[in-house]
Write a structure and sequence with these properties.
Elements lengths: L1 H18 L26 E2 L15 E4 L5 E6 L3 E9 L4 E5 L5 H5 L10 E3 L6 E10 L4 H5 L3 E3 L9 E5 L11 E11 L6 H9 L2 E5 L10 E5 L7 E5 L9 E2 L3 H43 L5 E5 L2 H5 L3 E3 L27 E4 L6 E3 H8 L16 E5 L10
Parallel strand pairs: 1-2
Antiparallel strand pairs: 2-3, 3-4, 4-5, 5-11, 6-11, 7-9, 7-10, 8-9, 12-13, 13-14, 15-19, 16-17, 17-18
Length: 396
């Protein structure tokens, strides 16, 4: 019994933190500019600074900031820095990003290591990285540009210097008028060194994907956290575009909890019923054991009362409160040692005015006419000789 009780309490402590699911905040879409023309920001992305949404409306690493030009900036990592988000596909879990100043070649010259970011290069969009040699050339290199040996990078060039790249760094025709200043790894779809493919990879949006969190929600659903703690996500149904209280699909953890809780609760309830019946039966047995131990028939000659004489002794029934008018009267039957209960019938000894249960004192007087408390012997008692063993007497 004790083991079952401990098991129930342990299961409650173990499973309760996973079962209780407070109301998940309704996370509306947010915008950097006009909702009519802007890309909405929604889970797992979250618009920060000046936003009154709960911090549970976005996944870690997906914070978006609006700058003064209404651009949506996403910091990929501390080392890489911020990129402008031009498009988001929640269904395909992909984003299209570019440099906020429209100079992607400058960013590709930096280390684009995404290990510290939740995003990865889109494997469906890129097959390879083309390594370009970045050159700082004087005006004398204009002929090389015309001949298609060098390719200018306008966003890095100025009136005095022309920043270019060479497709084949082994060519040395540029060495007289250009200095090598670095390299750029350009993501490309094709392995060929076609200039148009290089140009597309150098200036087009970068496509990245994320695998965590993995929502896989339907078109009419939104993704969000399952509980107000932890990073487990689930899909919610919304009845209106504005967002109404979510109706979640019960996850397997919740189903397991309610199943375990229901079975354990039933066993615990059944345990208390059995325990209650067992205690009542034990109390009843102990009560009659007390009667048998207190009513001892003396061997040989005893003084007893017959049934008609016992019935002449006064008796009365307790009221619903079970209280006596006389506070000096003991509230416990001295024969069975049980407390008097409301509506029970008692009988008193006339010579001493002591009270007892009717069934207790009647059984006693048929074997011993003296009062169980004061041992006074009443008038009208009959002298008999006991010839029956004690086990033949009944006290019911």
């Amino acid at each position: 019994m004790a083991t079952l009780s401990i098991s129930f309490l342990f299961s409650m402590v173990l499973l309760l933190p996973h079962s209780t699911r407070s109301t998940t905040p309704v996370c509306d879409k947010r915008y950097c500019g006009s909702p009519d023309r802007e890309l909405p920001i929604e889970f797992p992305f979250q618009l920060i600074e000046g936003n009154n949404q709960s911090n549970r409306c976005g996944y870690p690493g997906f914070d978006v900031l609006c700058n003064d030009r209404k651009q949506k900036l996403l910091k990929l990592s501390q080392e890489i820095g911020e990129f402008v988000v031009n498009y988001i596909s929640l269904e395909k879990q992909r984003i299209w990003i570019n440099d906020p100043d429209a100079c992607l070649p400058r960013r590709l010259m930096q280390n684009m290591n995404l290990n510290d970011s939740p995003f990865r290069w889109d494997k469906d969009s890129y097959d390879n990285f083309e390594k370009l040699t970045i050159l700082n050339c004087t005006k004398l290199a204009a002929k090389l540009i015309v001949e298609g040996i060098l390719y200018p990078i306008p966003c890095l060039s100025n009136n005095n210097h022309s920043i270019t790249y060479a497709l084949n760094s082994s060519l040395d025709s540029w060495k007289s008028s250009c200095n090598e200043i670095g390299f750029a790894l350009v993501p490309v779809k094709d392995h060929s060194k076609d200039s148009s493919i290089i140009e597309e990879g150098l200036y087009s949006d970068i496509m990245l994907q994320w695998n965590t969190p993995l929502c896989e929600c339907e078109a009419d659903q939104r993704c969000g956290f399952l509980t107000d703690t932890g990073l487990t996500v689930t899909c919610y149904n919304f009845t209106s575009p504005g967002g109404s209280p979510p109706i979640s699909r019960p996850g397997p953890r919740r189903v397991i909890f309610f199943l375990v809780w229901g079975i354990t609760g039933f066993l615990f309830f059944f345990y208390w019923i059995v325990l209650s019946v067992f205690r009542r039966r034990r109390h009843s047995q102990q009560r009659w054991t007390n009667i048998e131990s207190n009513i001892r028939e003396p061997p040989g000659v005893v003084v007893v009362l017959d049934g008609s004489r016992i019935e002449q002794y006064p008796k009365f029934q307790l009221n619903e409160s079970g209280q006596f008018n006389d506070s000096s009267i003991d509230k416990v039957c001295s024969i069975c040692l049980g407390e008097y209960q409301p509506m029970e019938t008692l009988r008193s000894m006339p010579q001493c005015n002591h009270y007892f249960h009717v069934h207790c004192i009647d059984a006693w007087l048929k074997m011993n006419a003296t009062c169980p408390l004061c041992r006074n012997e009443p008038e009208g008692s009959v002298l008999v000789t006991s010839s029956l063993p004690p086990s033949t007497y009944s006290f019911t």
